[in-house]
Amino acid sequence: MKALILSLAVLATPAAAQAPNWAKAQPISITMTDHGFVPRRIALRQGAPYVLRVTNRSDKGHNLTQKAFFAAARVRPEDRGETRDGQIVLASGERVTVRFLAPVTRRGGTYQFSSTTLADASDDYKGVFVIR
């Protein structure tokens, strides 16, 4: 009886609960420059695994903020500290890697991101994650 219950529990576990193979995840690079994010538009497939590398090549500190996106994405537990409070914060010259599964939504959607530092308010420091 115990073996039957254990077998049913294993079968009931969704495949999505298994850890993704991060070595096969699609890489994405975003660079922070003195004039904004490059690229500004990031296309993602729902539920697909990604390895996001963000590099600050500016001479100032910047952040990439999008609280709803980082809350909806399944960020790898070891990388959650890098997206604390829904933002990635980098000083000049810093680089960070965040692994995640793209959010799954009914119709896809967009998540506008920006840098919220006071110095970036006057610049066009914005971008968008587009979920398909």
TrEMBL record:
Residues 7-70 form the EfeO-type cupredoxin-like domain. Residues 1-19 form the signal peptide. Keywords: Signal. InterPro entries: Cupredoxin (IPR008972), EfeO_Cupredoxin (IPR028096). Pfam families: Cupredoxin_1. This is EfeO-type cupredoxin-like domain-containing protein. The lineage of its organism: Bacteria, Pseudomonadati, Pseudomonadota, Alphaproteobacteria, Sphingomonadales.
